[in-house]
UniProtKB/TrEMBL annotation:
Keywords: Chloroplast, Isoprene biosynthesis, Magnesium, Metal-binding, Plastid, Transferase. The keyword Thylakoid does not apply. One of its GO terms (molecular function) is prenyltransferase activity. Its cofactor is Mg(2+). GO terms for biological process: isoprenoid biosynthetic process; quinone biosynthetic process. It holds the Pfam family polyprenyl_synt. It comes from Spyridia filamentosa. Belongs to the FPP/GGPP synthase family. The keyword Plastid applies. This is Prenyl transferase.
């Protein structure tokens, strides 16, 4: 069994239950909203976020038993993530997601936006029913972060002066915030002390940033069939990611393509992606992801629990293994 599979193996049964519960939880009175939401859930996905919630939950319980509240948190996390995908696909006009037609392509933009709103509302309802104020405060902040991330991204579209620091800030709001909050939420539900809760938040933040950087590398190096969406879609929508930012430093002529917003047919597939792979941009992006992975590992070592190390350290390998 590969390292990549190892992180899912200890929680396989929990993920099966999660998938079954998600379909029950999104049931809505309006069949179109239900169908739109179910369309994306049925396509599956990596389920990396609930997997991390389950693993943190196991590692913070004395008998490694996952509480019903932990399960609900994992489900809430995946619902919030899916809601954000629905809205992202509308904003980016992405035709496919997880290898199937995106919701706005299959239905229409209005339905996709409403389905995303519906899922955010569902997540808020289930979150409130956890009856844990600290968990509610921690997870609900994520929805605010998502909105702020979209605004930040919109303000720097096709901006060739964007820095790696600005890219990381946007990546935190759009990706790492949810992973960080769900890790802390699991620790809260396990009744860990405040210091441990905050360590898990920082762990999730660094893991989330590494995960996003790797995703952005794959957007350049991997085929659409494997990605489950068109490759280079970030560039098309003006989102300058780590590989492109690093390539710009080495090859300033890329500004010409960015300034014309990649309007020529082969600007992305036959020009930008080739230039990026001919520079040191991919390696620099990998190095950046590794920095965040190393930070996450240091935090796990600070927690000083052998069960936590055994459960969570393989996640680092899984993330980096995705680009090998």
């Amino acid at each position: 069994m590969t390292l990549s599979n190892n992180i899912f193996y200890p929680v396989q049964e929990d993920l099966i239950k999660l998938n079954n519960n998600l379909n029950k939880m999104i049931a809505a009175k309006h069949p179109i909203l239900y169908a739109a939401s179910e369309h994306l859930f049925q396509a599956g996905g990596k389920r990396i976020r609930p997997t991390i919630v389950f693993l943190v939950s196991q590692s913070t319980m004395k008998n490694q038993a996952i509480l019903p509240e932990h399960r609900r948190l994992a489900e809430i996390t995946e619902i919030i993530h899916t809601a954000s995908l629905l809205h992202d696909d509308v904003i980016d006009d992405c035709p496919t997601r997880r290898g199937i037609n995106s919701v706005h392509s299959k239905f229409n933009t209005k339905i996709a936006v409403l389905a995303g709103d519906f899922l955010f509302a569902q997540s808020s309802w289930y979150l409130a029913n956890l009856n844990n104020l600290e968990a509610v405060k921690t997870i609900s902040k994520v929805i605010i972060d998502f909105a702020e991330g979209e605004v930040k991204q919109g303000l720097i579209n096709f901006d060739t002066t964007v820095s790696i620091e600005e890219y990381i800030s946007k990546s935190f709001y759009k990706t790492a915030s949810l992973i960080a909050a769900s890790c802390k939420g699991a620790a809260i539900l396990s009744k860990c002390d405040k210091k441990t809760q905050n360590l898990f938040y920082e762990y999730g933040k660094h893991i989330g940033l590494a995960f996003q950087i790797v995703d952005d590398i794959l957007d350049v190096t991997t085929s659409p069939n494997i990605l489950g969406k068109p490759s280079g879609s970030d560039f098309k929508n003006g989102n300058l990611t780590a590989p492109l930012i690093f390539a710009l430093e080495e090859y300033p002529e890329l500004q010409i393509l960015i300034n014309r917003e990649f309007q020529n047919k082969n600007d992305i597939s036959n020009t930008v992606k080739i230039i990026i792979q001919e520079t040191k941009a991919i390696q620099k992006s990998k190095d950046l992801a590794q920095e965040y992975i190393q930070n996450a590992r240091k935090i796990i070592n600070e927690i000083n629990c052998n069960i936590t190390k055994r459960k969570l350290l393989p996640i680092s390998n899984y993330i980096i293994d995705r680009i090998k």
